[in-house]
Amino acid sequence: MTFALHAIASHPTIQDSIQKELPHSLSSAQDFEQLQYLHCVIKESMRYYPIVHSIPSRIAAKEEELNGYQIPQGTMLMCNTYSLHFSTELWDTPYSFLPERFLEEKSIKAGSWLPFGLGSHLCLGKGFSLLEQAVFLASLLKEYTVSVREEMEVCKEFLFAPKPYTLYLKKK
Ligand code: HEM
Predict the structure, then answer these.
(1) Of 19, 21, 29, 45, whose Cβ has the fewest other Cβ atoms within 10 Å?
(2) 116 C-alpha to ligand 1 centroid (Å)
(3) At 151, which CATH number?
């Protein structure tokens, strides 16, 4: 959420588009689910800042062929989400922050956006987290316009996290 806020504060035109989409009343879960552009911004911020930059390793239970590679039984496998999210084979201009790329969900290749993992260990909190971010961001941006005056530094440890930064709020 703090990553998304920084991205929004750094891109005034994106913030403007989010605010234009906000309806007069935001009360039910449905009101928040319908904020299509805001959801694109949240998804793009989770692509651009993959908090879980590497999905915890798995051990191959049996020998398997994967994309032309022979994987012996017992091999440790890791998914580097960061490389995936910035792959030029999967994304056009991956270093640009472009929420619009999520407007056409069908154009996103399966398995190329994995902030919540995939398969049997897919994050149980995925739906909750996406809705929580929409509720928080929409409620804040309904009342305030946010801005930043500094670059954000990212703490790159077990998880990615923003280092403390100052966010300026102006009442609309
Ligand atoms: C932005 C917020 C979140 C991110 C980026 C995130 C990311 C992830 C990822 C990548 C995994 C897969 C790990 C793997 O494959 O080994 C995972 C698993 C999991 N997450 Fe989240 N998560 C978030 C929020 C939450 C929340 C809010 C909850 C609970 C309410 C939650 C509960 C879980 C659980 C229980 C698993 C384990 C699922 C399993 O192993 O079957 N997560 N999460």
Answers:
(1) 29
(2) 6
(3) 1.10.630.10
